Amino acid sequence: MPIRCPSANWLPALCYNKHFMAVELDVEFILAKCDYFADVQVWPLQQKLSPARWLDNFEAADRSLAAHLLNGFLYFSEAMVDQMFGTAIQSLSSTVLEADLPFFMAQSAWRAFLDSAIITYVTGESPNPTDSGQLFARKARQVVGIAESSILPPDNTVLRLMTDVERTVIFVDDFVGSGNQFVQTWRRPIRTPGGTDISFAKLSTVARHRFIYCPLLCTKLGLNLIQKECPMVIVVPAHLIPPRYSALARDSVIWPPHLLSQGADFIRRCSAAAGIPDSPGSVEDWRGFAGLGLTMAFAHSVPDATLPLFYWEKNGWAPLIRRT
């Protein structure tokens, strides 16, 4: 069964106002915009997000480029995250319900679907309590109203599926960058009480279970990897992130046309000056993990795919946002 992304939209162009794409942005204007975002609580107070201090890292000749990079930074507050998460889960209805059901029947069928589904999460190569997926498992209860008994860690989910005939499993998460973490979770062997190993991947070939992955944001790179390695999974993110949202892309939406050719070199130069490593494959590589070069953060975390230039704290560099 091919992977599907039935209801996801491309990430809306929140980071760049088209009216500014052909003009030079004034640094003070950008700082005023950041202050306004903080005043209306779209951004947090400056103790957590410090635009002015971050801009002070840059030489005068680079301030304009730095201002454009700051203008392209996306911050998702907890309220935004909750809204996106609820929308992402709700969007599953178009995948699991018949399109022509009367409203009350659809409402009943949707509730029955949620009550019968198992909610689980994605873990890193070495699962630990700080994995963001666990936060979203809790949000499934708090935001969507999923029963606590339906929320299980991945290993318990695999064991439950061995005894159930037909279940739907919904993986929840905030962000898909390279897609590696999901593939690892999908393939990770779980030891059964009988001493054998089983995984989601193996179960998907021998049982009638349905598997859905519902992250908030998903890059095209991550989607392609999951499509290749996990063909039995239906992926339903709230938003897909196209390659143009990388600050390093040749056609990046972060930079106006007159600065586009300078953007990637500016980031490389300033990253080197801050002491950020040139180490492809590392989570501290100046390009961001997997070279994704993103400009975003959540209230609860900063993805590895985000440019370290935003959160770096060594060698006297003042971060825009601190990683938690």
Provide structural commentary:
The structure is a single chain. This protein has 324 residues and is α/β, with parallel strands linked by helices. The protein folds into two domains: 17-71 and 254-310, no CATH class; 78-241, Rossmann fold (3-Layer(aba) Sandwich). Helices cover 37% and strands 13% of the residues. The longest helix is centred in the last third of the chain and has 15 residues, at 260-274. The radius of gyration is 21 Å and the shape is elongated.
List the helices and strands and how they pair.
Blueprint: E1 9-10, H1 27-39, H2 51-55, H3 63-71, E2 74-76, H4 78-90, H5 93-96, H6 103-116, E3 118-121, H7 132-144, H8 154-163, E4 168-176, H9 180-187, E5 190-191, E6 197-198, H10 200-206, E7 210-219, H11 220-229, E8 233-235, E9 239-241, H12 260-274, E10 296-298
Parallel strand pairs: 1-9, 2-10, 3-4, 4-7, 7-8, 7-9
Antiparallel strand pairs: 5-6
Ends apart, CA distance between termini: 38 Å
Q: What's the architecture of the largest domain in CATH terms?
A: 3-Layer(aba) Sandwich
Question: What does the oligomeric state look like here?
Answer: single chain
Give the overall silhouette: elongated
Q: Using the coordinates shown, work out and report the CATH topology of the largest domain.
A: Rossmann fold
Largest sheet: 6 strands, parallel
Task: Estimate the strand proportion.
Answer: 5-15%
Number of helices, counting only DSSP H or I runs of 4 residues or more: 12
Order of secondary-structure elements = EHHHEHHHEHHEHEEHEHEEHE
Query: Which structural category fits the helices and strands?
Result: alpha/beta
Mean of pLDDT: 86
Fraction of residues in H or I helices: 25-40%
* Sequence stretches where pLDDT stays below 50 over 5 or more residues: 1-10, 12-23
The level-1 CATH class of the largest domain: Alpha Beta
